[in-house]
Amino acid sequence: MADATRERIKEYAREIGYIYNRRAASLRTSRSGIVGVVVHDIMNPFFAEILRSIESELDRSRQTFLLSNHYDQLEKQRTFIDTLLQLGADGVIMSPAIGTPAQDIRLIEDNGLPVVLIARSVEGAKVPVFRGDDAYGTSLSTNHLISLGHTRIAMVGGTDQTSTGRDRYQGYVNAMEKAGLEIRPHWRFPGPRTKQAGFEVAGAFLALQDKPTAAVCWNDLVAIGLMNGIARAGLVPGVDISVTGYDDLEEAAIATPALTTVWNGQREVGRRAARVLLDRLNGAEVNRSQQLIKPELHVRQSTGKPKER
Amino acid sequence: MADATRERIKEYAREIGYIYNRRAASLRTSRSGIVGVVVHDIMNPFFAEILRSIESELDRSRQTFLLSNHYDQLEKQRTFIDTLLQLGADGVIMSPAIGTPAQDIRLIEDNGLPVVLIARSVEGAKVPVFRGDDAYGTSLSTNHLISLGHTRIAMVGGTDQTSTGRDRYQGYVNAMEKAGLEIRPHWRFPGPRTKQAGFEVAGAFLALQDKPTAAVCWNDLVAIGLMNGIARAGLVPGVDISVTGYDDLEEAAIATPALTTVWNGQREVGRRAARVLLDRLNGAEVNRSQQLIKPELHVRQSTGKPKER
DNA sequence: CTGAAAGCGCTTACAG
DNA sequence: CTGAAAGCGCTTACAG
C-alpha cells in the first residue's frame, strides 16, 4: 500500500471519528502501554516533584501512567497492583508501602511486570532502586549545625519503620557521635512527615528543660511546620532556634526564613527510574542494584550560631 | 453451582495465580471500570484535596481512576482524552484547560463517556458542573477587609482567562463598588497561582506610592507567598498589611500568621462530582446544570485594622 | 438448568 | 505481495 493511500485512510478514519481500541490491541499483543506508579501520597510535594519528572519521561515514550496512593497501607497497594495486573500494565514504578515484603515484589515480576523502586528499598528484592543517600544527607545537615557551634541538637519527625527513616536517623547519630556530642532520647520526636506534625512538635520542643538550640528535621514540610510553630510562640527561627529541612522542595527557598536544607535529587530519582523502567520494557538487561543519589547541603537563613552556649 | 463450590474454585484460582483479564472482559462488555480525572496540576494542593475525595468516592465503587495533568495545555488534555477513549474509559471528571471549547466536551460525550466538570465551567457545554461561588467568595473577603476599615485594597494573582478568574475579580470589584471605594488598575497584580508568584509580587506591591493596606489574593498559595515576601521585607503580615487567601487549604491554618481565607468546599466538590458521575454511569438522569457550592469566610490572624488611615 | 458457540476489535502467522 | 483466518480471554445469548 502506498504511503499516500495510507495517509488518506488515516485522514478518513479521523473524519468519521474512528477510535483505535487499545484493549483489543493489548489483548492480542499483551502490551498495554500502561505503566503503574504507586507512591505514599501525591499530596506530598516530594512525591509530586518525582512524579513530574516521571511523567515527562514517560510522555516521550507515549506510555500512559496510572497513578495511585497507598497511604502506607499494604492492602491498598495490593489492590492497586492487582488492578495493574488485570489491566495488563507493562511495568511499575513504586515507592513501597511500609512493610512491603520482598515476596510482593517477586509476585509482580513473576507476572511479567518489571518493577523499579524509588525512595525506599525493600530488603531482599532484586530490582533496581533509586533513592537519595539519606544517612549521608542528614550527616551533612547535622555537621553544618555542629560547625556553627550547636551542641544540643534534636531530630524531629520520621519513623524507624522505613529504610529512609532509619538511614536519616543514623546519619544524625553518626555525626553527633563523631563530634562527641550527647544524644538524648527525648530529643528525638518521631512522627508524621507533614507540616502539621512539625507545627505540633513546637510546643513540646520549646517546653523542654534542656531545650536543644537546633533541630534536624525529617523533611522540609516538618521543618516549615516547626518554624511556623516556633514563630507562633514568639521566637525567631534561624536566630533563637536553628532548623534544617530535607528535600529542598521549591518551597524551601521562599519560606520565612529561607530554609537550610538537603537537596535530595527528586528530579533525578524520577528521571532515572523512568528511564530504567523503559529500558527494561525494551528488553534491556539493567543493573538491579541500589543507586544512591548524592545529596547536597543548601545553606540558607534558617540556621545560625546558637544564641546561648 | 452451589456457593460453596464457587468459593472453592475462587480459592483454587487464587492459589494457582490466576489473574482476571480486564481487557478481555472490557472488550466484551464495553465497560472498563476506568474513570479519567484531568486537572490543571496535581501538585496544587487545591486539586490534591479534591482528588482525595474523588478517590475515596470512586474506591467504594471499585472504579480505577486514571489521572492526568494538562497544565492548561489544550493539546495535553486532548491527548489524554484520546487515551481514555482508546482504553474504553467509562467516564471523565475534569477541570477543563483554559480555552477548552464546548465542542471538545461534546466529542467525549458523543463517544459514550459521561463528563462532569469541576472547578471551572465551559460556556455552552451541557454537563454537570461543580464549583464554588467564586464571585460571592471574594466579595466575602473584600467586605471583611472593608469592614475592618481598609480603603486601599489590592487584588493579587489570577487570570481573566478562566471563569474562576473572572468571577473572583468580579466579586472583588462588586464589593469595592458597593462600598464606594476606588479601584485602581495598578492595584491588580494578575499572575500565576503559586507561592512563588505571590512571593515575587511583594516587591512591586510594597514599592507603590499609593501602597494598598490590604490584599485580596487569588488563593492561599499566592497569599502565603505574598506574606513570606512581606515578612522578608521586614514588615509584619496581618499588622502592616492585611492579606486574605482563598480555598482554606489545610496549610492556611498553620501559616504564620494564620491565614484569613475563604473555604471553597473542595471536599464537597470532589465528592459530589464523583457521585454524579457514578449516577450517570448507572444510567441515571442527572441535573446537567452548574452547582455552586457556597463558600464561607474563615477569619484568622492575617487580617486586622489598617495601620495608617 | 447446562454447556458449547459466537463475538468484542485488534494483530500476526499463514495460505494462496 | 495480498487477503482471509485464527486467536488473545472474556461474557452472553442461545441451543439442547
From TrEMBL, chains A, B:
Keywords: DNA-binding, Transcription, Transcription regulation. Coiled coil: none annotated. Residues 1-29 form the HTH lacI-type domain. The keyword RNA-binding does not apply. It comes from the Bacteria. CDD domains: PBP1_MalI-like (cd06289). The keyword DNA-binding applies. SUPFAM superfamilies: Periplasmic binding protein-like I (SSF53822). It holds the Pfam family Peripla_BP_3. InterPro entries: HTH_LacI, LacI/GalR-like_sensor, Lambda_DNA-bd_dom_sf, Peripla_BP_I. One of its GO terms (molecular function) is transcription cis-regulatory region binding. This is LacI family transcriptional regulator. It comes from Nitratireductor indicus C115.
